[in-house]
Specification:
Largest sheet: 5 strands, antiparallel
Structural class: alpha+beta
Number of helices: 13
Number of domains: 2
Shape: globular
Strand content: 15-25%
CATH topology of the largest domain: Dipeptide-binding Protein, domain 3
Order of helices and strands: HEHEHEHEHEEHHHHHEHEHEHE
Low-confidence stretches: 2-49
Radius of gyration: 22 Å
Bound molecules: 1,1-dimethyl-prolinium
Mean pLDDT: 88
CATH class of the largest domain: Alpha Beta
């Protein structure tokens, strides 16, 4: 595939995505109604006891949510959450999955506050005690499915690979097992191989009745999110075991969809729907073949350590 390399570096760019950085107190007129309550003047939010906690957390975190790559759907959702919940003072800082988990690990080790854009399945929930902030407005949606898409024509060109991709279906724990092993230092391929070795019965259901092939080339695209590193490496190995010469290409999310839609790549197993990638499905969905759900019960949201004193996105107001 000769994809524009922009897609590959986009995920590494650092920068601020600001949804309005005005840090000034915009509640001056309300302060009179608030005497005795020594907070920032958020009078409309004083029914709970988290008012002060929200203001403190904001100050401690410099009103910054630690995000991931700018192209991730969860980043747009986080931006939307700032709007919906009136968090004009907050920004979502773009980085990467790896940088986000590093920051989370550092904060956690020191019992410091941190808010990250988080999702399940992800090893961070096994490694740390974390909670999703409640999202009463439903900005991050309910549960998500992870879906598989192929390029048009794959079924005719490589029917066995198409069948494997179509049959691929597993659970949160399966994906979690690979992710955890990688996080503990294992090579991605090795961790995927271990899972395959331990789940031969599952894998044989995906490959049952398929003829081996002889070195035909297949290219899968993905984004370097821990969850997708796990799934893509695993299904890539299953295809290799069937005789394919498999290339795995990491891209930024938009380019991942575009590569499959343009037929430059053969498929991907990394589409989070109905919400996280709905804008990408809208742009590219008509030119791809929907091979169905490969994992159910995924989730996204704002995630904090359990020890933090806030429970809802509303507590950040
Ligand atoms: N994620 C993981 C992706 C989908 C998979 C939640 C970081 C996203 O936000 O686009």
């Amino acid at each position: 595939m000769k994809l524009n390399k922009v897609g590959m570096i986009a995920g590494l760019s650092l920068g601020l995505i600001a949804a309005g950085c005005g840090g000034e107190d915009n509640n001056n007129e309300d302060n009179t109604a608030n005497t005795g309550n020594n907070n920032n003047g958020n009078v409309e939010n004083n029914e709970g006891n988290n008012d002060a906690a929200g203001a403190d957390v904001g100050e401690e975190l410099d009103y910054t949510i630690t995000g991931i790559d700018a192209g991730a759907g969860i980043m747009s959702a986080a931006e939307e959450a700032l709007e919906v919940y009136g968090l004009e003072d907050w920004t979502v800082q773009a980085s990467s999955d790896a940088a986000m988990t590093q920051a989370l690990g550092d904060a956690y080790g020191n019992e410091e506050p941190i808010i990250v854009t988080g999702w399940t399945p992800h090893w961070k929930f096994a490694a740390y005690d974390l909670k999703y902030l409640e999202d009463p407005e439903g900005v991050f949606g309910e549960s998500e499915d992870i879906k598989t898409f192929a390029r048009e024509g794959l079924e005719e060109d490589h029917p066995e690979a198409y069948a494997v991709l179509e049959n691929f279906y597993w659970g949160e724990e399966d994906m979690g097992t690979i992710m955890m092993e990688v996080n503990e230092g294992a090579d991605e391929r090795e961790a995927a191989r271990d899972w395959i070795d331990n789940n031969e019965d599952v894998v044989s259901e995906w490959t049952e009745g398929l003829d081996a092939v002889d070195g035909e080339e297949i290219e899968l695209v993905f984004v370097a999110w821990d969850s997708e590193i796990a799934s893509t490496n695993m299904i890539g190995l299953v295809l290799e075991d069937l005789g394919y010469d498999v290339t795995l290409t990491p891209l930024e999310a938009t380019y991942m969809f575009q590569a499959v839609a343009d037929g430059e790549a053969d498929g991907m197993v990394a589409a989070w729907l109905p919400l996280t990638h709905d804008h990408l499905l809208e742009d590219f969905g008509d030119s791809m073949v929907d091979l169905g759900v490969n994992l159910e019960g995924a989730r996204t949201g704002l995630v904090v350590p359990e020890y933090m004193d806030i429970d809802s996105i509303e507590d950040l107001q």
